[in-house]
Structure formats: structure tokens, C-alpha cells
Amino acid sequence: MVNHYKMPLPASYFFLYNIIMKNLPSTLPVFPLSGVIYFPKTNLPLNIFEQRYFNLVNDAYNGDKLMGMVQSKKESGSVYQVGCLGKISDYQKSKDGRILINLTGISRFKILEEISNDKLSIYDVPDPDASYMDQDSLIERINYFALTYNAY
User: Fold this and answer.
1) In this model, does residue 100 exceed pLDDT 90?
2) Scanning 25, 44, 47, 80, which has the fewest C-beta atoms within 10 Å of its C-beta?
């Protein structure tokens, strides 16, 4: 049911949403890739074969299994400001040395700034604002975060 009358949502919905969002990192490794559109609630299989991305994926997998995906801009080599936070839900090493992962989309994020680091591109990520959501969307997002974030 959609909140047609734009009635205020109970504070408990925002409380639950904020608890989940507070458990997400404020900085994360970001995997720039051109030509890939990645959304929450989708799966993205990736074939990792470059050393710099080996380090990024291994660090994410050995930590909280979270990493961001953003599109890189073709002309400048920079990245777009909005990406998707994903959790590594499957990780396999192939016989020829590649890493095969599946990334499960959790939430959008916006890049605030790049933080200097030798191995990874890490960006500050703000807490998303849920105030624009209707009740059903917020409940659905709470359930999805709870299932996806804690499942692996």
C-alpha cells in the first residue's frame, strides 16, 4: 500500500533504517568500471584479472565484504559521483589465477571525496536520507538491508 495521503511515517521506521545504515561503512573501496550499470537488488558477476583489482577485492572479501561499484567516465578517467554499494556474495579462485565474484547490490551511495591510499580508491559515503520514501518503500528497504547485509 502506497502512502497516498503523505502521512508522516512512524519514527520507528526511520529508527530501524538508521540502525541498518549506521552499520554500513563511511568509507569503502570503489571498483570503477565503464559500461556497467549496477543497481540495488541486482547481482553482478565479475571476473577479476588485474593486480590492482585483486588487491581491492581481496581486501574487501577479507574485511566486511563490501565494495562500491561506479562507472568510470571514458573521456577523463574519473568516475561518476553516484554508485552502488555491493556485498561479495560469492568468491572463487580459478585455476588460471583469476578471481570470480558475485556482487549483490545493497544501496546507492554518493561519493563525497577520494581519500588517498596506495592500494585502493576509497571514498567517503554519506548516510542516505530516507525521508522521501513512502511507508511501503521504507519497509521493503529495511527488510532487504537486513536480509542482504547480514546474509553472508
Assistant:
1) yes
2) 47
Over residues 27-53, mean pLDDT: 88
For residue 122, count other CB atoms closer than 10 A to its CB.
20
Residues whose CB is less than 8 angstroms from the CB of residue 67 and which lie 6 or more positions away in sequence, other chains included = 28, 29, 30, 31, 56, 57, 60, 85, 86, 88, 103
Report residue 124 as a C-alpha cell.
567517503
Number of Cβ atoms within 10 Å of the Cβ of 7 = 9
**Do the bridges between strand 66-70 and strand 27-32 make them parallel or antiparallel, or are there none, so unpaired?**
parallel
State the pTM of this model.
0.69
Query: At residue 15, what is the residue type?
Result: F
pLDDT at 55 over 80: yes
More confident of the two residues 140 and 43:
43
Residues paired with 109 in a beta bridge: 83
